Amino acid sequence: MGAYILRRLLLIIPTLFGIMLINFALVQFVPGGPVEQAIARAQGGGDVFGGFTGAGNDAGDTEISGGNENYVGARGLPPEFIAELEREFGFDKPPVERFFNMMWNYMRLDFGESYFRSIGVIDLVKEKLPVSITLGLWSTLIAYLVSIPLGIRKAIKDGSGFDTWTSGMIIIAYAIPGFLFAIMLLVLFAGGSYWQIFPLRGLTSDNFEQLSLLGKVADYFWHITLPVLASTISAFATLTLLTKNSFLDEIKKHYVMTARAKGLSERKVLYGHVFRNAMLIVIAGFPAVFIGVFFGGSLIIETIFSLDGLGRLGFEAAVARDYPIVFGTLFIFGLIGLLVGILSDLMYVLVDPRIDFERREG
């Protein structure tokens, strides 16, 4: 197993390099880079994209060339100012040099500072982590706590009325978009049109620091109830049906019939013999599911509930062309995702020691 883990760890280097290279190359063709963003802010426009609509190309507008680019909307700004912006953002160097400088810094865990926020990328990620941890952790735990017992029950009652109507409810829940369900929750329970039971926005109340320990815990759960429900609704379907199908496959195997023939109770057969084998794929996939929810956190859910998490951070950085945040978070999350893939394999071995990845590769 040690040799397999070592090979997987070594594969992380070219894989991560390829991810960064492809994204860096694609970004070179995207209009409205950091320099144009800075020009728009300097002129009080706030956003560069108005310059691409054609509205600003009147007789008084000029295009000032900086390096190999023409910066649309650089009205009346001296070329020296444009050149200084390029030096500040590192665009006075060729793309290949910029890419390898960036990767060298990342290998030394130097992710730089945001172009427009005057804060380090790592500090910014730490600032947004509580929201993403909240949505990712609680959504995953609730999905597992509900879906596994429900899936087992559906497998036992396969073909019954219970199995039929629960499958219908699961499919309906899966079909409802998360953002639509979030709006429904706000309308019903956050003072939209009916009851004002839960707060409308934020992760904690304004007076959170003045509350007692129990008060802080209650306030925290009071605030996260609706966004966690909204982000969890679609996760039930896949996990429940996966659990059900895993149990059905195991129940039909010979060792189950042998255990029943020995006179073991149905409960002992299910939870003493079937459960471990049926839950292999479900339990071992927990790290990947959590990371998927954690890093793929819904931008729309965060926006609806006014939560400032990693989803909004990534979106705002992409819109503002804040490349240190875009590439820094891509490197960090890409590395974590690759490590979680290895962790998932280790979970398989932990749940079922019969699995030997080295023998399979050989």
From TrEMBL:
Location of this chain's protein in the cell:
Cell inner membrane; Cell membrane
Q: Which residue ranges does UniProt annotate as crossing the membrane?
A: 9-30, 131-150, 171-195, 220-243, 278-305, 325-351
Q: Which UniProt keywords apply?
A: Cell inner membrane, Cell membrane, Membrane, Transmembrane, Transmembrane helix, Transport
Where is each ABC transmembrane type-1 domain found? 129-348
Bilayer disposition of the protein? Multi-pass membrane protein
Annotated PROSITE patterns: ABC_TM1
- NCBIfam families noted in UniProt: PRK15133.1
Query: Which family is this protein grouped under?
Result: Belongs to the binding-protein-dependent transport system permease family.
Protein name as it appears in the record:
Microcin C ABC transporter permease YejB
Q: What is the species listed in this Swiss-Prot or TrEMBL entry?
A: Sulfitobacter sediminilitoris
Read off the lineage from the record: Bacteria, Pseudomonadati, Pseudomonadota, Alphaproteobacteria, Rhodobacterales
